[in-house]
């Protein structure tokens, strides 16, 4: 950690500094006049001090949290900054503040419950690997808040605000995550350093920032566990359906108990589901989609062919991949795209090879993507390597790689449309011929023989000129 940079962070306006807010995302409100009650603090960061930037600072704070086995986000970096400044102001020693924070982590129990305003008739619970799916255990939540988090009156306010009663709520559907042991700041150790009037506010900001990350894991893990149950007979529910069923401003109950082993040291943070809105990301413009749909409809109207079938196979995988990507299941999206390309471009014989697939992906798409064939082959090889690393080692795949592979899939679809029209015009043009023509051009490319434009048109790499 760069001490000079830390000491230069300000809480009042400083020209040419980077402004960041230290605040809760879900402000508390007065029950009657709806007034915001929580304060807000503005932090001002130097853009650079002797080559050390705000980005460097975030990296150092991330390492601080990760060393402790703790989650990290930019919001948690603001928590670190505020805690450092508070200790530094009292002690006058930057090193003391840094050391104090290094030693201030402890363990806590985390319990997470998501109730929904929908009556659930089943008495039995679905027991997933990490979750319980069934009726809302109202009394359990009430006991936890009363016994382990005596500082909160959130349960009573929740009931009152949503005009509910506990008997009715017992028939609500809920998803409950198994209790977890997590690392947290032992904020009571830092209590004396915090400014008067800001102590509970700091607790709220910290636990809210941490809980947002925990709920992201909650929904990712729930989707995984749900998929396992679906394979054995359960109906599939998109997790976004549950978001819409959420009740009140703070539906997702996040309860931290037994902080530092103390049964009465805990904190409760309600996280509203508005943070989980559905985001529809279009890969292409409406005009492009309209043209593509029209071209596909034209293909089907002209008649059946081997290439129409291959096209349908590929777009089926692409559709599934797009849904996964929209749902932030990035690796699943990538695997579906590679599976679709493999089904369409690899030989359906015992001689099918990964190298064959990579070469055919490259030769079919390099022209329309405007890249060198050799460079494109290595890019396709890298894509296949990412697939293997995920399948065999569980290595995560970045969203950008899925976007890149979608571009390849789009161009393969264009080539298949072109081959469909060619086959309808001449019955002797088959999938086997297409593969052979591609492989011949691939051999030319590897031998650095100039590629003939007419032959590239005939495999769909270039648009046929009339």
Overview of the molecule:
The protein has three domains: 100 residues, no CATH class; 171 residues, no CATH class; 174 residues, no CATH class. Helices cover 54% and strands 13% of the residues. It is built from 18 helices and ten strands. The strands form three sheets. The chain has a six-stranded antiparallel beta sheet, with helices on both faces. A two-stranded antiparallel sheet has the order 1-2. About 3% of the residues have low confidence.
Keywords:
single chain, 466 residues, alpha+beta, 6-stranded antiparallel beta sheet, two-stranded antiparallel sheet, 10 strands, globular
Summarize the structure.
This protein has 466 residues and is an alpha+beta fold.
């Amino acid at each position: 950690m760069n001490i000079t940079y830390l000491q230069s962070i300000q809480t009042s306006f400083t020209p040419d500094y980077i402004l960041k807010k230290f605040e809760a995302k879900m402000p508390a409100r007065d029950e009657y006049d709806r007034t915001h009650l929580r304060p807000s603090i503005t932090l001002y960061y130097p853009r650079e001090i002797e080559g050390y930037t705000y980005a460097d600072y975030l990296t150092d704070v991330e390492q601080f949290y990760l060393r402790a086995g703790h989650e990290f986000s930019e919001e948690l970096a603001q928590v670190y900054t505020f805690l450092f400044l508070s200790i530094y102001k009292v002690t006058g020693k930057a090193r003391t503040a840094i050391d104090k924070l290094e030693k201030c982590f402890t363990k806590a129990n985390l319990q997470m419950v998501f109730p929904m305003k929908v009556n659930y008739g089943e008495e039995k619970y679905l027991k997933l690997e990490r979750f319980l799916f069934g009726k809302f255990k109202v009394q359990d939540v009430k006991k936890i808040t009363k016994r382990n988090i005596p500082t909160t009156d959130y349960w009573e306010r929740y009931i009152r605000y949503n005009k509910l009663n506990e008997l009715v709520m017992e028939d609500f559907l809920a998803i409950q995550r198994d209790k977890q042991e997590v690392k947290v700041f032992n904020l009571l150790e830092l209590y004396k350093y915090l400014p008067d009037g800001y102590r509970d506010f700091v607790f709220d900001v910290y636990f809210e920032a941490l809980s947002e990350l925990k709920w992201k894991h909650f929904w990712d893990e729930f989707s995984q566990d749900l998929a396992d149950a679906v394979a054995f007979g359960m109906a599939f529910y998109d997790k976004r359906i549950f978001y819409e069923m959420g009740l009140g401003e703070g539906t997702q109950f996040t309860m931290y108990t037994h902080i530092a082993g103390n049964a009465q040291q805990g904190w409760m943070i309600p996280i509203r589901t508005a943070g989980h809105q559905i985001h529809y990301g279009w890969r292409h413009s409406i005009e492009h989609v309209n043209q593509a749909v029209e071209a596909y409809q034209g293909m089907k109207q002209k008649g059946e062919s081997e290439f129409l079938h291959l096209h349908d196979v590929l777009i089926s995988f692409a559709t599934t991949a797009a849904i996964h990507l929209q749902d932030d299941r990035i690796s699943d999206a990538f695997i579906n795209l590679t599976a679709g390309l493999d089904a369409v471009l690899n030989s359906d014989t015992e001689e099918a090879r990964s190298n064959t697939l990579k070469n055919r992906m490259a030769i079919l798409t390099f022209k329309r993507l405007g890249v060198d064939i050799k460079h494109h082959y290595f890019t396709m090889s890298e894509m296949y390597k990412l697939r293997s690393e995920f399948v065999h080692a569980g290595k995560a795949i970045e969203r950008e790689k899925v976007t890149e592979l979608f571009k390849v899939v789009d161009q393969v679809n264009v080539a298949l449309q072109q081959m469909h029209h060619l086959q309808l015009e001449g019955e002797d043009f088959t999938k086997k011929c297409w593969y052979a023509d591609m492989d011949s051009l691939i051999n030319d490319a590897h031998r650095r023989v100039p590629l003939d434009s007419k032959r590239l048109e005939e495999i769909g790499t270039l648009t046929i000129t009339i």
